[in-house]
Amino acid sequence: MWLPMIGMTALPHLGGFYGGYITRKEVNTWYPTLKKPSWRPPNAAFPVVWTCLYTGMGYGSYLVWKELGGFTEEAVVPLGLYGMQLALNWSWTPIFFGAHKLKWALIEIILLTGTVGATMWSWYPISRTATLLMVPYLGWLCLATSLNYCIWRDNPEKKEE
Fold this sequence. Notes:
The protein is 75% helix and 0% strand. It has 161 residues and is mostly helical. α1 packs parallel to α3 (76-98) and α3 (76-98) packs antiparallel against α4. The model has no long low-confidence stretch (mean pLDDT 95). The longest helix is centred in the C-terminal third of the chain and has 27 residues, at 128-154. The protein has helices spanning 2-26, 45-67, 76-98, 102-123, 128-154.
């Protein structure tokens, strides 16, 4: 029973590795050119925070999976919402750091935050522990959404002539 726990806990990190690959260059070139609010977390905080958040959400998904007896019919909504939020999570970095589309990244992170809320709502009757493991993630997303908004607001797209 260790393999599913390890696999489901590790799964979110795959997108994190890909996001890190995209971000690595941009955080030293493009990102410093943006106007950012003074309250933003330091760049060094992001990999540490995301490692904790990905581990928590991954383990939470394992708890839900285990409680529902695997990928059963009963698991379609809670694990489907989880999969949707994970796909949205993995999509934000290529939009923001890869394509430099601040407005689209803002729209995407708002959808992501709502999907995380729906995931938590669907998990609560199944595993309160799994739901609580998502609370720091939802809090971080609220901060990240605010940061994305401020960056979008303060860095208007240049009109192409």
